[in-house]
Design goal:
heterodimer, A: Rossmann fold, five-stranded parallel β-sheet, B: 7 helices, about 85% helix
Chain lengths: ~120, ~240
């Protein structure tokens, strides 16, 4: 059975690019347009990994990671930050919040897939 | 500013200006021809005449000054009114143009997002078709030369690799979105600032535009984007994932 990955990004085109990459690799996807939307979609469905942007409206990526880490069902779900952000302070904040990896945009398919396969839950 | 005291003293001094030569001339006459009622009367009349003419000269002079002051005041007021009308029109233009620009930026954002979306979908379909080409159970293709099949596989892989590169390039849209969002924010801030100032009416000078503060904020935001851009240049550095 295919593993499920949640993509959280406010840019529809970015969700599409990430979606193509991950679907090609055989993963099922759930898409959300920002942190709040993503929290609504964490409804008990088994999610093996989350890929999230940082700069988003309504709820940014770091706040979203903090919320997920408080969630009893998803607190162990690995999270990859996929962002254009290069600020070291943000990187540290993401690490402190509980993110497991940081990938810069624009990303190469290979880089994202390697990070996903390394972190995804069994 | 003139006060009643210095107005009186200046009037007195002004009247004395033509009186001094009369007094000196009178003293010379008395000294040369001796003190007589005719001489004293003549000198007295001359001094009186000088005082009166000095007084009228002062009146004429102050009248000229008042006329000139009124003329300049009127001219300044006209200039101030012109400047005020220009400022009000400029504010009106910025307040009206701001939302239009935000609308246009938003439309540009949506349009590029849409177009890039269509392109990405198309590439996704091509990718799927390429997969089909490799996996289809075609008896004719099975009978083909294995070397030809290998060549076909190699071509398909190359096309897929090229598609990956195009998809990577299309991620520019994300950065474009960020920059356009920044432009929208900046326009929104400017509009709010102008609106607040306009609400103060003629007393708007009390809350002056904090131009330097606004410019510093804008600069900081754009610097962040520029910084990201420059940071993203050395691909080998950023293309690797960092694990925590």
């Amino acid at each position: 059975m295919a593993k499920t990955i949640m993509i959280v990004d406010d840019s529809a085109s970015m969700r599409q690019v990430i979606g193509i990459t991950l679907r090609e690799a055989g993963y099922d996807l759930i898409e959300a347009s920002d942190g709040k939307d993503a929290l609504k979609k964490l409804d008990g469905t088994k999610i093996h990994l989350i890929v999230s942007d940082i700069n988003m409206p309504n709820m940014d990526g770091i706040s979203f990671v903090k919320e997920v880490k408080q969630h009893p069902k998803y607190k162990f779900t690995p999270i990859i930050m996929l962002t254009t952000e290069v600020n070291q302070a943000k990187k540290d904040a993401a690490k402190e919040a509980g993110a497991r990896a940081w990938v810069n945009k624009p990303f190469q398919t290979k880089t994202l897939l390697e990070a996903v396969s390394k972190l995804i839950l069994p | 500013m003139q006060t009643p005291n210095n107005t009186n003293s200046s009037r007195f001094l002004f009247a004395l200006v033509p009186t001094f030569p009369s007094i000196i001339f009178g003293l010379i006459i008395v000294w040369q021809q001796g003190v007589s009622s005719a001489n004293v009367s003549f000198v007295f009349l001359m001094v009186l005449f000088s005082l009166v003419s000095g007084y009228f000269m002062w009146v004429w002079h102050t009248d000229q000054l008042e006329r000139q002051a009124a003329y300049h005041q009127k001219r300044n007021l006209e200039e101030i009114n012109k400047l005020m009308a220009y400022t009000v029109e400029l504010e009106r233009l910025l307040l009206m143009a701001g939302p239009k620009l935000v609308e246009q930026v938003s439309a540009a954002k949506e349009l590029t997002e849409q177009e890039v979306g269509v392109l990405i979908k198309r590439f996704s379909v091509i990718n799927g078709e390429l997969n089909l080409l490799l996996t289809v159970d075609n008896p004719e293709s099975n009978e083909q030369d294995p070397e030809k099949l290998d060549n076909l596989r190699a071509i398909v892989e190359k096309i897929r690799h090229d598609i990956d590169i195009v998809l990577e390039a299309l991620q520019f849209q994300d950065r474009v979105n960020q920059i356009l969002a920044l432009v929208q924010d900046t326009l929104g801030t400017l509009k709010e600032t102008l609106f607040d100032i306009q609400q103060q009416g003629p007393e708007r000078h009390q809350k002056m535009l904090k131009v330097d503060e606004i410019m510093t904020n804008i600069q900081t935001q754009y610097e962040t984007v520029k910084h990201r851009k420059s940071q993203s240049m050395p691909k080998h550095q950023v293309d690797e994932a960092t694990f925590f």
